[in-house]
Design a protein that fits this description.
The chain has 157 residues and is mainly beta. 15% of the residues lie in helices and 39% in strands.
């Protein structure tokens, strides 16, 4: 009976491991050479875990980080990425800066901002939808909005 208990414990842990790992792994796939951005909840850094494509997945060339909660792939790279979560403290929330960025009708507008610590849509001001990577987004130079999206954004999540 004593010998069966450790074996049962090992099997039990092996059955639970995939569920625990799955929470920290995202799959991102580039179809037909197009660039694709895959987001995950919270803050974190993604690292290549397993390449699924025949095309090489090379950081900075065919995959990379998009802000603090997304990874991008391109040119046929398909892979699983492990997300290392980052803890955020309440004191960082007090340091947030709000910026308003607005698009008129179908025009695309760019608002220069310090986006090093991420951007979060705080409050939508327009009737037209503001959808990340469709009608708004950001890069290392600032925030862009299009298709009538008007919103308040927080800098530094």
């Amino acid at each position: 009976m004593i010998r069966k208990t450790p074996g049962f414990l090992v099997i039990f842990l092996l059955l639970l491991a995939p569920a625990a790992i799955a929470q920290n792994v995202i799959r991102c796939e580039s179809d037909y050479g197009h660039r694709r951005v895959c987001s995950f909840d919270g803050w974190g850094r993604a690292a290549l875990s397993r390449q699924l494509s025949r095309t090489a997945c090379v950081e900075g060339r065919t995959w990379g980080h998009e802000g603090r909660n997304a990874v991008w792939v391109s040119n046929g790279c398909r892979a699983d990425f492990v997300v290392a979560r980052e803890e955020r403290h309440e004191e960082h929330r007090r340091e947030r800066v709000t910026i308003v960025c607005e698009s008129d009708r179908d025009d695309r507008h760019f608002c220069p901002a310090d986006t090093r610590n991420g951007v979060e849509l705080r409050h939508q001001l327009s009737k037209r939808s503001c959808d990340y990577n469709r009608t708004w987004g950001y890069n290392d130079r600032g925030i862009w909005v299009s298709r009538g999206c008007r919103a308040e954004f927080w800098l530094g999540r």
